[in-house]
Amino acid sequence: MTRAVASLGMYDHPAQHAANDALWRTIAGKLRRHGIDAPDTLDRSRPVEHVWRDPDLLFAQACGYPLATAPDLTLQVVAAPVYAVPHGAGATHRSVVVARADDPGDGIAAFRDRVVAVNARSSNTGCNLLRALVAPLAREGRFFASVVETGAHRASAQAVRHGAADVAAIDAVTFAALGRYEPDLTTALRIVATTAPSPTLPFVTAAGTSPAVLAALRDALDTALADPATAAARDALHLVAVRPASLDDYAPLRTLAERAGAAGYPELR
User: Fold this and answer.
1) How far apart, in Å, are the Cα atoms of 119 and each of 149, 158, 167?
2) pLDDT tens sequence for the chain (269 residues)
3) Burial class for 41, CB neighbours closer than 10 Å (0-12, 13-18, 19+)
4) Distance between CA atoms of residues 100 and 107, nearest Å
5) What domains sit in the chain, N to C, each tagged with a CATH number?
């Protein structure tokens, strides 16, 4: 007997755990009314990259860049979320490029030969969008002095604050959460640039999920987000709605990487 898996690990600041749990309980309850055996709890035991590749994945949120570029990542898109955050519009958002508040650098060009922090090289908001931003400024395939990989947007922001890096691209939704739950961190930083817009991080399910279950997921998500009982959770997550979406909506993220490569800047460095 298989065990269905659910995760909401992409925007899961410790202060948002209760909100994600509450939202999932509502979604799961609505799925059970469709006869779907949804798990009681979210999986926080593994990296999200492992969860995405679990054949028993029922529901999760994924980064759009590996979704568009990783050959081994075969998922179906359930919907694209809409967030009420600065630098977000509809089912799109940007990354904010931040430096320390007392850094005199003005604009991204001022950070040539400085240290950049990225959450992961496979990240759209932390790396792919930033690479596209600095590609026109690179010289002989290089812009930054060095790259520090931190493992998380929050850790990248902390690295900049504490001087381990000079600049980082932070997902706008994450930055809004940090502003709400860790204002001492965001007030120590300053936005020096923003990236191009890109689709928000999609809600996804396994490639093997049946059409009937996919339809039930979409219905459960829609009705959960309209349920007054989830209002506090939605507010804590900055989540206001979802929009229809497909894998094709994330192809432009691959195009951004290809254009940077064609410009002689295939890797953030």
Assistant:
1) 6, 11, 12
2) 358 999 999 999 999 999 999 999 999 999 999 999 999 999 999 999 999 999 999 999 999 999 999 999 999 999 999 999 999 999 999 999 999 999 999 999 999 999 999 999 999 999 999 999 999 999 999 999 999 999 999 999 999 999 999 999 999 999 999 999 999 999 999 999 999 999 999 999 999 999 999 999 999 999 999 999 999 999 999 999 999 999 999 999 999 999 999 999 999 99
3) exposed
4) 13
5) 5-82+199-254 (3.40.190), 89-198 (3.40.190.10)
DSSP 48-65: HHHHHT-TTEEEEE--HH
Residue 40 tokens, joined: 């009681």
Tokens of 43: 């999986």
- Dihedral angle sign, alpha carbons of residues 136, 121, 153, 164: negative
In angstroms, rounded to a whole number, what is the distance separating the alpha carbons of residues 2 and 55?
A: 9
